[in-house]
Amino acid sequence: MNYRKWMLGVLVLLLCLPIGMTGVRAAALQITIELDGETLSPDVPPYITSSNVTMVPAGVVSKGLGAAVEWDQNTRTATISKGENVLKLTSGLKTALVNDNAVGLDTSVQIVQGRVMVPLRFVSEQLGLQVVWNQAAKHIALYSNAEIGGPSTPSVPAVPTPNVPTPAVPKPTVPPTPTVPSIPGAKTSKEMKGAWISTVFNLDWPSTSSAGNETKQKKEFDTLLDKLQSAGFNAVFVQVRPSGDSLYPSVLVPWSKVLTGTQGKNPGYDPLEYMVSATHNRGMQFHAWFNPFRATTDASTSGLASNHVAKAHPEWVVSAENKLYINPGIPEARQHIIDTVMEVVKGYDIDGVHLDDYFYPSGVSFADDEAFKAYNPKAISSKGDWRRDNINDFISRLGQAIHGVKSNVSFGVSPFGVWRNKKADSTGSDTTAGVSAYDDMYADTRTWIRSGWIDYIAPQIYWSLSFSAARYDKLVDWWVNEVKGTGVKLYIGQATYKVGTDKSAEWQSGEQIINQLKYNEKYDEVAGSIMFRANDIVTRDPFGLASLLTFYFKS
């Protein structure tokens, strides 16, 4: 009997060892925490688990949200409730119940020194507590009521009222709103804080599981907007024409398959109308992003709707790199794309029209000899110059059409980040990129800028500050000089998708993006940035990138 008791005691001791070790790690990290500017000193300090999850005492969450926290020792389950939302986290389980729906967890509830510890970010996202993590200072800032990020709502002018004498009432002293500490090197905030939302392959929105479900798709988009706004973004660039199709009712192109799983199938509502309204309701900008000349993402036509351009006008289509492209060399085909863009400009209250870099495909054979002969009224001898002229004509005509209907709608393009290498052109950038926008995609961005055909340019500078072939800083320098004195704004396209996915050392931290933002601050010509892409920022959130961006944008 005594032997069994002794063994039981040893077993209990062994079970407690990981908890004790966790506590030691917490002390070593010395994480500090504040709530709405007030420093908190919990009995058990926050700590980071081996799976990189920040754990805090449940009492912190309770205080910050006014949520009720209950611990059931028998089931080892923490129940956190606020209003209609109820979270149940059971020690040792990899799932939690959120309003009775199972949701995956990296780390569940733990007991340390008699205190219930909960995963901070998971609980906060479910119940609305804003979190800002400063990696360098090992500091957590929590905000219970103040919304972090996003533009302020425009004020409404007050209606004048007659002067009526009233007794003076002393005003109570209101404590100052807590501020996020400034970051060394940061200067005036840039106007554009944009994020690309990819719909092709259901990358960012809508999810494949929401196919045909209007309610779920709307909720997903609302959640994505809320997360982006909380992180500090004030604009979204949403892909409304991923592959010669549309996320809106069109008389020219079919419904996109990303909405229902079947191209041409009506989703039962107007997604674009909803997205524009939801974005504007949050005081954010909505830019409609078009892939101009990409017709499909593979070479097959079997799943295409009958009114898709590849079936309706096969004579316009060229197969290259296992994709189908609309031939930019055919004037009627170019006009067709302009007409589809103008459907959106005329029918929706968008803030801008945005094109990406899908002009001519680079590094592959493109069968346009017949078009070169048939549609060459200027008798241009070089096919390369002819291709650039086709794209120039398209950009010029599209800009004129947009501004002819709505002068307040901005028009911009996001080309490949290298116009030309210095080796190919002495006025090019100090880079040795394998391809260039001018020579391989036939995008003569210099002409667009100098001719004033576009309102902004957003080059995709998707390389680090130390990548020798195409350094971020050298390319920003070059593009700044391109737009200087032209009136064309410069937004920088940044590769948040590389953080944690690119295996090189410089991308194993969100600091690469922050350092790039700091570099942008050198120039007044850089009017902001657009980051690719939304889910990589606020859903995958590598190394706490969303919090780093929030901290930076708010400083």
Shape, principal axes of CA atoms = globular
Flag low-confidence runs.
Answer: 10-27, 145-188
Number of helices: 15
Q: Work out the strand percent.
A: 15-25%
**End-to-end distance, in Å?**
64 Å
- The radius of gyration over CA amounts to 27 Å
Q: List how many beta strands DSSP finds.
A: 23
Give the class from helix and strand content and strand pairing. Answer: alpha/beta
Helicity range: 25-40%
How would you write the strand order of the largest sheet?
Answer: 14-15-16-19-20-21-22-23
Mean pLDDT: 86
What characterizes the major β-sheet? 8 strands, parallel, barrel
Region (Disordered): 168-187
Domain Copper amine oxidase-like N-terminal: 35-140
Biased composition (Pro residues): 168-181
Domain Glycosyl hydrolase-like: 191-507
Short description, anyone?
This protein is α/β, with parallel strands linked by helices and 555 residues long. The chain contains 15 helices and 23 strands.
Describe the structure.
The protein has 555 residues and is of the alpha/beta class. The chain contains 15 helices and 23 strands. It has helices spanning 2-29, 58-65, 120-127, 214-231, 271-281, 309-312, 331-347, 369-374, 383-405, 437-440, 445-451, 472-483, 511-520, 534-538, 545-554, and strands spanning 32-35, 38-40, 47-48, 54-57, 68-72, 77-82, 85-90, 95-98, 101-104, 110-112, 115-119, 130-134, 139-143, 192-197, 235-241, 285-290, 317-320, 323-326, 352-355, 410-413, 456-457, 489-494, 526-531. An 8-stranded parallel β-barrel has the order 14-15-16-19-20-21-22-23, surrounded by 5 helices. Strands 5-6-7-8-9 form a 5-stranded antiparallel β-sheet, with helices on one face. A 4-stranded mixed β-sheet has the order 2-1-13-12. Helix 4 packs parallel to helix 5 (271-281). The relative contact order is 0.09. Residues 10-27 and 145-188 have low confidence and may be disordered. It comes from Paenibacillus helianthi. Residues 35-140 form the Copper amine oxidase-like N-terminal domain.
